[in-house]
Amino acid sequence: MSTRSALRAPRPTETAKDFAADVIDGLTAKPKYLRPKYFYDLTGSGLFDRITTLPEYYPTRSELGLLTKHAPEIASLFPQASALVEFGSGSSRKARILLRAAASVEAYVPVDISAQFLGGEAAKLERDIPRVAIYPVATDFTKPFELPAAVRGRPCVGFFPGSTIGNFEPHEATDLLRLAAQILGPDALFIIGADLVKDRNVLHAAYNDAAGVTAKFNLNLLARINRELGADFNLGAFEHHACYNQERSRIEVYLASRKRQKVRLLGKTFEFRAGETIHTENSYKFTLKSFSALARGAGWAPVAVYTDADHYFSVNVLKQK
Ligand code: TRP
After folding, report:
1. Is the pTM higher than 0.90?
2. Among 44, 131, 133, 158, which is most buried by a count of CB atoms within 10 Å?
C-alpha cells in the first residue's frame, strides 16, 4: 500500500433510517416507486458488474472501447498534478484506463455509495497503479460533499461514466452537473458518458437480458429491503419489467406484482393490486445535441465528444464555462 494514501474503510453516510424513510415514502406514493441508488448494496453492486459483461448490455463495452481508443487524447487535456474524481466509481474499471494513460494524474478519488465495494476495489487499484494516491469517499454523490483534504488545491478532472447521468430526471441532472462544478472547482474538466438514442430493440434487449441478471438486479432491491428492514416481500410474486418510452427517450424499469398481495414492513402494511408496479429506475437516452444542451444549461462547455461507429454511446469532455 502506498504511504501517501488515506486508504482505510470508508464510512457510509447512508443510514438505515434514511433507507427506511425513503422506502416507506416510495411504497406509500401513488404510483409506487423506489430510489435507484438503493440498488447498490454489496450484492447489487456485484450484480451490476455482471450486467456490464452481458452480451445485450452494450453501454459498458461501447464506453470502454471509446475510452481505450481516445485515452491518450483525453489524457493530454489533463492539467499537471491533477486529481481524478469519479462519481459512482463501482469497480473503477474505466478509471484505470484514464489513470494509466494520464501521467499527469497523481490522485484518484473514487466516490461511491457502496462503502464495502469501494474499499475492496480501491485497494486493488492502489496495488496496480502505485503512482496514484487513492482517497475513497463513501457517500451519496447527489448531495454536497467535500473532497479529501489531501486533494484540495489540486486541479480536478471529474469522471462520470456509465450514463448514470441518464438515471436522473432532467432537472436533477442539471442540479447534479452544477453541484459537480462546485465540488471540482473553477477550470475543472468533466468527462461524462452519455448513452444515445437508438433502435428500440437494441435498447429493450439491454434491459431485458436473456440470462435474467437484470431481473435479479432489480429484484435484489426487494431482497435488500427484506434483509435490512425486515420486510416480507415474496420475491417470486414480483417480476422485472423494462420498456422504452420513445416520447420521453427513456428506458423505464419496474417491479410488477404478479398478484394481489400484502407486504409487511416496519409495522406497516402495503397493498398491491395484481399487475401493480413499483417504478425503480429511468435511464434517459440522449442525442449529441440534447446532451450538449444539458451540459451548457448547467454551466459546462463541451470541449470534445467521442462516439463509436454505431453511434451507440458518447464520451463527452466538458470544461467549466
Ligand atoms: N446506469 C445504468 C443504466 O441506466 C443502470 C442500469 C443498467 C439499470 N441496467 C439496469 C438500472 C436495470 C436498473 C435496472 O444503463
Report:
1. yes
2. 158
Query: In angstroms, rounded to a whole number, what is the distance separating the alpha carbons of residues 260 and 258?
Result: 7
As a whole number of angstroms, the distance between CA 42 and CA 228 comes to 12
Q: What number does the ligand 1 atom closest to the CA of 164 have? A: 1
Ligand 1 pocket: which of 35, 39, 207, 216 to mutate (most atoms <8 Å of CB)?
Answer: 207
Are 251 and 216 in contact by the 8 Å Cβ rule? The answer is: no
Q: H helices within the chain, ranges in order? A: 16-28, 42-51, 58-75, 93-101, 115-128, 170-184, 200-206, 213-229, 288-297
pLDDT at 284 over 60: yes
| pLDDT tens digits, one per residue of 223-250 | 999 999 999 999 999 999 999 999 999 9
The pLDDT of 148-163, averaged and rounded, is 95
pLDDT of residue 2: 39
Closest C-alpha among 301, 6, 2, 320 to residue 147: 6
Q: Give first-to-last CA distance, the chain, whole Å.
A: 38
Protein residue with least CA distance to atom 13, ligand 1 = 281
Mean pLDDT score, 178-207: 97
Please report where in the chains the cell 441518464 appears, as a residue. 166
Convert the pLDDT of each residue in 77-126 to its tens digit.
999 999 999 999 887 889 999 999 999 999 999 998 877 778 777 788 98
Pocket of ligand 1 (CB under 6 A): 51, 59, 162-164, 166-167, 207, 214, 217-218, 253, 281, 283
Cβ(105)–Cβ(128) under 8 Å?
Answer: no
Average pLDDT, the chain: 93
Three-state DSSP at 91 gives coil
Dist CA 172 CA 271 (whole Å): 30
Measured from the Cβ of residue 236, the count of other Cβ atoms closer than 10 Å reads 8
The one-letter amino acid code at 177 reads L
How many angstroms does the Cα of residue 295 sit away from the middle of ligand 1? 21
**C-alpha–C-alpha distance, residues 241 and 263, integer Å:** 20
